[in-house]
Write a structure and sequence with these properties.
With 308 residues, the protein is of the alpha/beta class. It has 2 domains: 1-120 and 283-308, Rossmann fold, CATH 3.40.50.10950; 121-279, Rossmann fold (3-Layer(aba) Sandwich), CATH 3.40.50. The chain is 46% helix and 16% strand. It has helices spanning 3-12, 26-38, 53-66, 74-80, 84-94, 108-119, 160-176, 197-212, 224-228, 230-236, 254-267, 293-307; strands at residues 17-20, 42-45, 99-102, 129-135, 146-150, 182-186, 217-222, 248-250, 271-278, 284-286. Strands 2-1-3-10-9-4-5-8-6-7 form a 10-stranded mixed sheet, sandwiched between helices. Helix 2 (26-38) links the parallel strand 1 and strand 2. Helix 7 (160-176) crosses helix 8. It is globular and about 65 Å long. The two termini are 21 Å apart.
Length: 308
């Protein structure tokens, strides 16, 4: 059974309520029908102006409480809560729904901003980032063709600590789906084959990640072939603890991550579930604005599992 089927089955085992605040998008409406029919989750669809005014006022008051240190006034909070994204995020924060999925008709920065402001960042991780669950059919690498790619949508140029925290949070996500994480910090160099500040940052991040989670199977700096191809790993880095079997790939920056996932998605005909937002206190997922109906269904399933 591939990861797509596993995710849907796992979500069905304990269906959660997931807010979908983009009812005006035909793809979202179609996805909601599939989600409900298959019992993957309990979708709650709505859009601008559709919520009860009393509830919207309650959400504005909650947003004001969350952002009071930022000097937000009530009128400004009310105006912000006209946006369904913020309503979905506040509903998740209050526990009225178990998570939210948006982005079919909103840009990633808009979804991430609402999520970070309303859900808050996990104090252990201290950085919100994103990832994709990638499934490459008929692929012998990773976890039977399954990988987690990070960060592909949020942090442009992660520093040492951010890189380590991105690795930790995505390893935790892998465990949610029954995958034992084998984490590779990717680079243009493998174990000293090149030198530079970028490589120094990766080595510092590696040490910090090991300190944060001594049980984590992680290595770097590694070129991608040395990370995922056992034969190449034997040649380039025979002492590699990953042995060319990495399944969580941490890219050095957003450019590399975004380009990497889109290349694999299009050229290898892979399924890309995400962007999944990680490092927050409650589960939520972004969507690519070019997403398909199936992409939305998969993102909702993942978000539901994270809420279980």
């Amino acid at each position: 059974m591939n990861i797509i089927n596993k995710v849907r089955e796992q979500a069905r085992a304990n269906p959660k309520t997931i807010a979908l605040p983009e009812i005006d998008d035909n793809r979202v409406r179609e996805a909601a029908k599939i989600i409900e029919k298959e019992g993957i989750a309990k979708p709650l669809l709505f859009g601008k102006g559709m919520l009860d005014k009393r509830k919207q006022e309650e959400y504005a008051q909650e947003y004001l409480r969350l952002r009071k240190t930022k000097g937000i006034e009530l009128d400004e909070a009310r105006q912000i809560l006209e946006d369904p994204l913020y309503c979905a995020a506040i509903m998740t924060n209050l526990g009225e729904v178990d998570g939210f999925v948006a982005g079919a008709s909103h840009a990633t920065p808009d979804v991430a901003r609402a999520a970070i402001q309303c859900l808050g960042v996990d104090e252990r991780i201290n950085i919100a980032s994103s990832c994709f669950i990638m499934y490459v059919p008929d692929c012998p690498y990773g976890e039977e063709g399954t990988f987690i790619f990070a960060d592909c949508g949020v942090v442009p140029d992660p520093n040492t600590r951010q890189l380590a925290c991105i690795a930790i949070s995505n390893a935790e996500l892998a465990r949610k789906f029954g995958i034992t994480p084998r984490v590779a910090l990717l680079s243009y160099s493998t174990k000293g084959s090149a030198k530079g500040k970028a490589i120094d940052r990766i080595l510092e991040a590696l040490a910090l990640a090991k300190e944060m989670d001594p049980s984590l199977l992680i290595d770097g700096e590694l070129q991608v072939d040395a990370a995922i191809v056992p034969e190449v790993a034997q040649i380039k880095n025979s002492s590699d603890i990953l042995a060319g079997k990495a399944n969580v790939l941490i890219f050095p920056n957003l450019e590399a991550g975004n380009i990497g996932y889109k290349l694999v998605h299009r050229l290898a005909k892979a399924r890309a579930i995400g962007p999944i937002l990680v490092g927050l206190n409650k589960p939520c997922s972004d969507l690519s604005r070019g997403c398909s109906v199936e992409d939305i269904v998969d993102c909702v399933a993942v978000t539901a599992i994270r809420a279980q």
